[in-house]
Amino acid sequence: MTDTANLKALFPKKDDIPAEFSMPLMEQDEYLINGELRKWNGERKDVFSPVRIKDGDNLIQPRLGSVPNMTEKEALEALDAAVAAYDHGRGQWPTMAVADRIKHVQKFVEQMISHRDEIVNLLMWEICKNLDDALKEFDRTVDYIKDTIEALKDLDRTSSRFKIEQGIIAQIRRAPLGVVLSMGPFNYPLNETFTTLIPALIMGNTVVFKTPKLGCLLFWPLLKAFRDSFPPGVINTVYGSGRTIITPIVSSGKIDVLAFIGSSKASDSIRKNHPKPHRMRCVLGLDAKNPAIILPDADIERAAKECALGALSFNGQRCTALKMLWVHSSIVDDFIPKFIAEVEKMQMGMPWTDGVRITPVAEASKPAHLAELIDDAVSHGAKVINPSGGVSCESLVCPTVVYPVNDKMRIYTEEQFGPVVPVAVYDEIEEAINYVVMSDYGQQVSLFGKDPKEMASLIDPMVNQVCRVNLNSQCQRGPDVFPFTGRKDSAEGTLSVSDALRVFTIRTLVAAKDTEDNKQMITTILKDDLSSFLTTDFIF
Q1: Rounded to whole angstroms, how far apart are CA atoms 351 and 338?
Q2: pLDDT at 538
């Protein structure tokens, strides 16, 4: 059994921290606007780590540095730079040949790779992602960028052909939408941010990029790479309070695309500020309350392992985490002990410690919020059923299994986004199906069972409620070539390596009547390489 003293002992003394993972101290005094790294001399926002450092009997929250706390003035300067670089679609970047834009992105990723160790260390200290997951996030992001480049080459090759229909010659390609406001989440600050930022850029849009509320220092090493890899104004960075800097940017009416990953409440608050909301396309990754449904014939050991990983990877701080388990009454007494055993196996500690699964939670307010959800569930008849459940110390929160959960409890519908796992029991499958149907969210579901007929009978209704049905496995995003989206309040737009290229563009065509004069003119444009859009160039 774990108690507060055990958890306190997991926090390190300063001398206990391995030299290769030493605590960073970064006073960021630069921001990128219009191709310039400008010096910041104004108010700063301090950045603290979720890790605590032992100082005698005390636990001290270390300060990692600071970032600019920008004002409306700088925010609008960043916006104006992006607007000028796009220049109503006439700017250097949106009119550049696809092959040339690819070269700029390739240059960026080459420079990005040189900062791998620094960024991985910042992922551990800023949001307490364990070492293995931090390495995976960085490497997966690099792979995503490279895969995006290859996907664009394929798309461009297909688009280089002409079509002749009903006496009309046409070439159909994808053109950029304009100025993009890009805002990523704290839980995957590098990967999730770049899954929208890179496709938006490579397709010819210009970008105002706001760093996440947590995990913002790790972008400082990349500012020079952005500056050196892209023309002035193509990407511009802003830091600070969303209310202070995002509201005036959107209220200007100059944003064409909002790329946002966060809560549906926050996205609604942002988009309503646009004077013409219908003109702002939204690419949104939002809330989720993904359930697992464990059928009577499920492989219980497998389901227990997958559900534990699915619910608690990165402390459950993932939109794709399993956030509600539905277990059939005939197997619940067998499932619960096996599931608890898997939960209790998860090693707790600091992110650089080998084998650690549960690290300090990233948000300062999260431990108190989770305690409220647990107390509310207990007040309505649930119990904390695992030995370490309900115990916390500062930012370390033990995984907590709450059972049985019912619809009177907040955790039944609220997304916990942390290491608390609610378990509900059902007798009739309609109970679990109705939970999915009535949910505000529609991202994914996991089904555990063996009977093909029973599984098929669930797959068919579930694909009309969620956008991914996982069979005998946890919910997840990857592989990145698969579509990633959601129904209801969970998403708007589809992200994958190829889909993301489409959501930041619109199909546009050049058309002409099939006459000799027009054919001669088009031939000359192609032969003399006079247009970046109207071209049959093949990108290898």
Answers
A1: 26
A2: 86
Q: How far is CA 242 from CA 79, 179, 266, 278, in A?
A: 14, 18, 10, 22
Q: Cα–Cα distances in Å, from 256 out to 72, 75, 263?
A: 19, 16, 20
Alpha-carbon distance values, 518 to 514, 521, 527, 529 (Å): 7, 5, 14, 16
H runs (alpha helix) in 30-113: 72-86, 98-113
Would you say 235 and 207 are in contact if contact means Cβ atoms under 8 Å apart? yes
Ranges of CATH 3.40.309.10 domains, the chain: 290-487
Distance CA 532, CA 525 (A): 10
pLDDT in tens, 199-239: 999 999 999 999 999 999 999 999 999 999 999 999 999 99
SS3 150: helix
124, burial (CB in 10 Å: exposed 0-12, middle 13-18, buried 19+): buried
Evaluate whether 39 touches 29 at the Cβ level (below 8 Å).
Answer: yes
Q: Which residues of 220-239 are buried (b: 16+ CB within 10 A; e: fewer)?
A: bbbbebbbebbebbbbbbbb
E strand spans, 286-426:
290-294, 322-328, 383-384, 392-393, 396-397, 400-403, 420-426
What's 89's DSSP letter?
G
Q: What is the 3-state secondary structure (H, E, C) of 485-536?
A: CCEECCEECCECCCHHHHHCEEEEEEEEECCHHHHHHHHHHHHCCCCCCCCC
pTM score above 0.90: yes
Say which CATH superfamily domain 11-285 falls into.
Aldehyde Dehydrogenase; Chain A, domain 1 (3.40.605.10)
The DSSP code sequence of 98-124 is HHHHHHHHHHHHHHHHTTHHHHHHHHH
Pick the CATH number of 290-487 from 1.10.357.10, 3.40.309.10, 3.90.1150.10, 2.80.10.50: 3.40.309.10
Nearest to 505 by CA among 264, 193, 55, 180: 180
Give the dihedral sign, CA 335/336/337/340: positive
Residue whose structure tokens are 């916390």: 392
Query: End-to-end alpha-carbon separation of the chain, Å?
Result: 60
From CA 236, how far away is CA 227, in angstroms rounded?
9
Contact present, 201 and 501 (Cβ < 8 Å): no
Q: Are 416 and 399 in contact (CB under 8 A)?
A: no
> pLDDT tens-digit profile of 165-190?
999 999 999 999 999 999 999 999 99
For every residue of 165-177, DSSP letters joined together read ETTEEEEEEEEE-
What angle do helix axes 131-159 and 116-127 make, rounded to 10 degrees?
120
DSSP class of residue 247 equals H
Helix pair 191-202, 98-113: axis angle to 10 deg? 150
Contact between residue 68 and residue 40 where contact means Cβ atoms under 8 Å apart: yes
**Which one, of 421, 370, 363, lies nearest residue 392 by Cα?**
370
Contact 232, 104 (CB under 8 A): no
392-393 and 396-397 as β-strands: parallel, antiparallel, unpaired? antiparallel
